[in-house]
Specification:
Structural class of chain B: alpha+beta
Radius of gyration of chain B: 11 Å
Largest interface: A-B, 14 and 12 residues
Shape of chain B: globular
Strand content of chain A: 5-15%
Oligomer: heterodimer
CATH superfamily of chain A: Glutaredoxin
Strand order of the largest sheet of chain B: 1-2-3
CATH architecture of chain A: 3-Layer(aba) Sandwich
CATH class of chain A: Alpha Beta
Number of domains of chain A: 1
Order of helices and strands of chain B: HEEHE
Largest sheet of chain A: 4 strands, mixed
CATH topology of chain A: Glutaredoxin
Order of helices and strands of chain A: HEHEHEEHH
CATH architecture of chain B: 2-Layer Sandwich
CATH topology of chain B: GMP Synthetase, Chain A, domain 3
Shape of chain A: globular
Number of strands of chain B: 3
Strand order of the largest sheet of chain A: 2-1-3-4
Number of strands of chain A: 4
């Protein structure tokens, strides 16, 4: 994995409290799981960023190597890797995710209801 | 594409006591919901439990036999 890619990833996960590497963008997700992750975090009401790596194989391989996790999307919170909604879902149910997010942002967000477009 | 018996065998090759429920989400035999019960998950953080499953799926994920998978793990 090139230093340059690793530095780029570390800069990105450091600059965004919640960061989702996925397929497609926040407004144009191109994979069901990326869309599901966007809706998941929208409900929580905290700001989050989505970085599209669909076409960027070297970066996808670097991320897989860094996290020992082969699939997308990949979620980072305050620079720490949290997998995807298969991990975040159970954490949300037992209240653990709410604690992690409140601590990461230093405030409690008002959860938003998602407007379903379809 | 991979059929359910081959997918279960692949998982059991790495997690021998796994009880595996397979749902083919799209009917195309490559988008699966997997519910896996195994003692191997006991006492492990959820992220590690799922890494065990991804390790078992290994090549099938890389070569596209499995395109997408949603995982639920249970310890007992």
């Amino acid at each position: 994995m090139s230093e340059q890619l690793q530095a780029e990833i570390e800069r990105e996960i450091g600059a965004n409290t919640i960061l989702v590497y996925g397929k497609g963008t926040k407004t144009m997700p191109r994979c069901g799981f990326t869309l599901e992750t966007i809706e998941f975090f929208t409900r929580f009401g905290y700001p989050f960023e989505v970085i599209d790596v669909l076409e960027n194989m070297p970066k996808r391989e670097a991320l897989a190597e860094m996290t020992n996790w082969p699939t997308l999307p990949k979620v980072f919170i305050k620079g720490a890797f949290f997998g995807d909604t298969d991990i975040l879902g159970p954490m949300a149910q037992n209240g653990e995710l709410e604690r992690v997010l409140k601590e990461a942002f230093g405030y409690e967000a008002a959860p938003k209801t998602t407007i379903s477009l379809h | 594409m991979i059929d359910t018996p081959a997918l279960v065998a692949l998982i059991r090759a790495s997690i021998p006591d796994a009880q595996v429920d397979v749902v083919d989400r799209t009917g195309t035999m490559d988008h699966f919901n997997l519910k896996i019960r195994s003692q191997a998950f006991a006492g492990r953080p959820l992220l590690e439990q799922h890494r065990l499953v991804y390790g078992a799926l290994g090549d099938a994920l890389k070569d596209g036999r499995v395109h997408a998978v949603e995982i639920t793990t249970l310890a007992e």
